[in-house]
Amino acid sequence: MVRSGDKEPRTAVVALGGNAISDPDKEDTITNQFAHTRKSLIAVLELIKAGYRLVITHGNGPQVGNALRRVELAYPQVPMVPLGVLVADTEGSMGYMIEQSLQNALHLAGIKREVLTIISQVLVDKNDPSLLNPTKYVGPFFPEGKARELADMYNWIVKDAGKKGWRRVVGSPIPLRIINSSAIRNLVEAGFIVIAAGGGGIPVYLEPDGKLEGVDAVIDKDRASAILGLNIGAEELIILTNVDRVALNYGKPDQLEIDRMTAAEAKRYFAEGHFPPGSMGPKIEAAVKFIEGGGEKVIITHLNNVLEALKGKAGTWIVPLA
Ligand code: ADP
Ligand code: MG
Known about the structure:
Blueprint: E1 11-16, H1 18-21, H2 30-49, E2 53-58, H3 61-74, H4 83-108, E3 115-118, E4 121-123, H5 129-132, E5 136-142, H6 144-154, E6 157-160, E7 166-170, E8 177-178, H7 181-189, E9 193-196, E10 202-206, E11 212-214, H8 221-231, E12 236-241, E13 247-248, E14 256-257, E15 260-262, H9 263-271, H10 280-292, E16 297-302, H11 306-310, E17 316-319
Parallel strand pairs: 1-2, 1-12, 2-9, 3-9, 4-10, 12-16, 15-17
Antiparallel strand pairs: 4-8, 5-7, 6-7, 10-11, 13-14, 16-17
The chain binds adenosine-5'-diphosphate (ADP) and magnesium ion (MG).
């Protein structure tokens, strides 16, 4: 509730990493996912108590991998399901788990805010280079022969994924726009807590006649979160993961943790190779995109440190100017 004299509440997109929902040390059962989701939502509850209007995004790597596996095992008893539709499935199922867990946490905290999940399509370019030359691994490992057989059967592209075998690869196109972002913006401004663009959202492209068409690919959730933030006019992007701070020379003896940097500095460190493609790279890319697009602040921190990070006492802040 906004009272006269109060500052206008700030809007943040909060991105939950895959590790916020799945515990890598535990089997990925729904019971475990629910338990882990409830724990992760303590951070989100802190943000709500701090007065933020919120959109929550989340990863879906392990979940969509399992969904692909289920589809393959069940075929031909039940028909194939394309990847785009499986992303939609996980947006719904994971959205449900987050939605219910958060609604319960709000209830216990005596906070009257409603939570809802929006299945999001995300516009990409049909000619995105990553669709023409896919490199993002999805789903299970197979022996080479089996992988090639499946590739012939389903028109997949498969690649050698190292010691554990071969895997399917799909494109990970750059998200251009969240299709239903004006609806999301209206809901957020009305005080609803919205879960959107789960798993990065369902990639779609525009046909020449203006119709949307799905494409079998996945969108990086950090990139999608930045675009979502810009599309709804959010002031902040808060990326919650499993390290407290972004570091230079990560994992090396001379590792140096960064508490604050400008987008320009982040770009320079990125170019110097400090942020690998599958993990910190997309977060930094998202941070730069968000700040260059007009966002005020990006915070990257550990799920457990969100309150300290809001005060600038933990985490890494990425800001427009020094
Ligand atoms: P999420 O599921 O939250 O997206 P990721 O595994 O994709 O998590 O990214 C977070 C991981 O990035 C950390 O666990 C850390 O191991 C790794 N990482 C790679 N480079 C860096 C860096 N320069 N600074 C901090 N963490 C880094
Ligand atoms: Mg990640």
